[in-house]
């Protein structure tokens, strides 16, 4: 009887645990140039991203498993520069491919998916810099 109670308690404890769902968002520069990313908003920031390199933009875990996106809450625009020349500026209301469209799978590609983990990548290409 003791063993049965212990087995029931173990089963209930496993059923009560919700798995964590983890998400990773990276920016990958697949252009032929090194690019400078400038994030303008409440706090400005700058990132130099070499060609064929990536940076992790956001990584988080969520117990609910229903938030497979993140949003730039405090960012007004993102500029992409090459040699101090602005090649592209992204805004929150852009049409087409945009760094702000984290729910759009054309903009942020799902590159890895496991049981409770997903990795999304925004690729900066030569086309984006024209």
UniProtKB/TrEMBL annotation:
This is Lipoprotein. The lineage of its organism: Bacteria, Pseudomonadati, Bacteroidota, Flavobacteriia, Flavobacteriales.
């Amino acid at each position: 009887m003791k063993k049965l109670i212990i087995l029931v308690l173990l089963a209930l404890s496993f059923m009560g645990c919700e798995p964590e769902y983890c998400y990773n968002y990276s920016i990958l520069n697949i252009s032929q140039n090194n690019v400078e990313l400038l994030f303008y908003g409440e706090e400005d920031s700058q990132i130099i991203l070499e060609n064929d390199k990536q940076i992790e933009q956001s990584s988080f875990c969520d117990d609910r498993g229903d938030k497979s996106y993140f949003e730039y809450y405090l960012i007004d625009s993102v500029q992409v520069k090459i040699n101090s020349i602005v090649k592209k500026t992204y805004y929150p209301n852009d049409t087409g491919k945009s760094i702000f469209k984290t729910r759009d799978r054309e903009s942020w590609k799902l590159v890895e998916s496991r049981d409770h983990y997903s990795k999304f990548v925004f690729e900066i290409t030569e086309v984006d810099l024209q």
